[in-house]
Specification:
InterPro entries: 4Fe4S_Fe-S-bd (IPR017896), 4Fe4S_Fe_S_CS (IPR017900), Cys_rich_dom (IPR004017), Glc_ox_4Fe-4S (IPR012257), Helical_ferredxn (IPR009051)
Shape: globular
Low-confidence stretches: 435-441
Protein name: Glycolate oxidase iron-sulfur subunit
Function: Component of a complex that catalyzes the oxidation of glycolate to glyoxylate.
Strand content: 5-15%
Strand order of the largest sheet: 1-3-2-4-5
Distance between the termini: 48 Å
Number of strands: 9
EC number: 1.1.99.14
Radius of gyration: 21 Å
Cofactor: [4Fe-4S] cluster
Structural class: alpha/beta
Helix content: 40-55%
Number of helices: 24
Length: about 450
């Protein structure tokens, strides 16, 4: 396009850009730089391109390609000694790209399809029946091979779906067990609610067992995480307003979320709605109550008895939990407090698994390489169970392990804690992509 790359509506901040001293500490942690060794596909390279845009250079297809290649994993934020707020820079840039860059017809159609389905739980729910029938048919392998040759993005999307079991609905209100310690509003999510209902059921049980009344409003919808992380600002703001409204009058002392990407987005509502006079203050108050479920449980301390769970696990840091929210110690503490459990660390923990919301669908080549790299690092631990805290990570690593033919099971952190509190056997925790292996949650 002709004219400056960025318009006047919240372009990347020149002051934030100037914080980068181009030292290169971000390079070893950047997944795309690790893959390709290309300077413009590193955080400091992208910051250089943003600077060109701020100075009035046009937005070229090459510039957009480098922005699109970023996973938004925020590992560079953790690594940066200068405190560069790359998260704010890339989100502002992506909003500009979505408004000002004309995408190809194929790209527009794919993005439209994704954003017409994934942020809408009812639409996802309608897919469960056909998807379960498809999975039971055994056609997955042949279909994947055909799609892989002709339509790699669709092949990537097909490969990610976890095996679906019966749907589990979380009641709107669940009373605390034992002495009541407060009320927690529970965010159900979209993909989490429909593809991993067992995670939500486990979350509600654990919170109740730990003495919290649980409120899960049925009217709640998407939090807007996928939209905000892909530059769809107006759409993200609309979802944020509706979620804030859904918890009005709930009496919740905290808002608990069990998906790392969702929690990261919800903690940014104050910035997302800062220009909205009707919601700016409400967004700040809402954000102040948002906690990842592991963060909340670690803050409040345990009261429910932990039964022994003799299992060895590998713990994977979801990027939007570890890097975007700075939550690393809390889930590990919860897991290590379980009697009999052994926790092993994964090599290269700072490198993203390649999921990154919908990155693995839009960029199946890079996403697939990173998924295989993460899967091999998981296997290097020798642990039979991989534990993490984000549905996208679970699907991505499960698909990569399945492609390698390895029977490692996977579980959400809260499912492991739930099994310990309920005294369930260790071999019943987790699931694997192959129906030959452990049961689906």
């Amino acid at each position: 396009m002709t004219g400056p790359a960025f318009d006047d509506h919240h372009p990347p901040s020149a002051d934030l850009l100037d914080d980068c001293v181009h030292c290169g500490f971000c390079l070893p942690t950047c997944p795309t730089y690790q893959l390709w060794g290309e300077e413009m596909d590193s955080p400091r390279g992208r910051i250089y391109l943003m600077g060109l845009g701020v100075e009035g250079e046009p937005m070229t297809p090459e510039m957009v390609q480098h922005f699109d290649a970023c996973l938004g994993c925020m590992a560079c934020v953790t690594a940066c000694p200068s405190g560069v707020q790359y998260d704010k820079l890339i989100e502002a840039t992506r909003a500009q790209v979505e408004r000002r860059h004309p995408r190809s017809r194929r790209d527009r159609l794919l993005r439209r399809a994704i954003f017409s389905v994934f942020p809408y739980p009812r639409r996802l729910h309608a897919l469960r029946g056909p998807l379960r029938a498809y999975q039971a048919s055994g056609l997955g392998g042949p279909v994947r091979r055909v799609l892989g040759r002709a339509l790699p993005r669709l092949a990537a999307l097909e490969s990610l779906a976890p095996p679906l079991g019966p749907f589990q609905r979380v009641p709107e209100r669940i009373p605390a067990r034992g002495t009541r310690r407060g009320t927690v509003g529970m965010v159900l999510g979209c993909v989490q609610r429909e593809f991993f209902p067992g995670v939500n059921a486990a979350t509600a049980r654990v919170l109740a067992a730990e003495g919290f009344d649980v409120v899960a409003p049925a009217v709640q919808g998407c939090c807007g995480a996928l939209s905000v992380h892909n530059g769809r600002e107006d759409e993200a703001q609309s979802f944020a307003r509706k979620l804030i409204d859904a918890f009005d009058g709930s009496g919740a002392d905290w808002i608990a979320v069990n998906a790392a990407g969702c929690g990261s987005a919800m903690k940014e509502y104050g910035d997302l709605l800062a220009d909205d006079p009707a919601y700016a203050q409400r967004a700040r108050e809402f954000t102040a109550r948002v906690r990842d479920v592991s963060e909340l449980l670690a803050e409040q301390g345990p009261v429910a008895r932990r039964h022994p769970l003799p299992v060895t696990i590998a713990y994977h840091d979801a990027c939007h939990l570890a890097h975007a929210q700075g939550i690393r110690a809390q889930p590990r503490r919860l897991l290590r407090d379980i009697p009999g459990l052994t926790l092993r660390e994964i090599p290269e923990p700072e490198i993203c698994c390649g999921s990154a919301g919908i990155y693995n669908v839009l960029n199946p080549g890079a996403g697939g390489e990173l998924g295989e790299r993460k899967a091999r690092n998981v296997l290097a631990t020798g642990a039979p169970l991989l534990v993490t805290a984000n549905p996208g990570c679970l699907m991505q690593v499960a698909a990569a392990l399945d492609a390698l033919g390895e029977p490692v099971r996977l579980a959400h952190t809260i499912e492991v804690l739930d099994a310990s509190i309920r005294g369930l056997p260790a071999d019943g925790v987790g699931w694997a992509r192959s129906r030959r292996h452990a049961p689906h949650p």
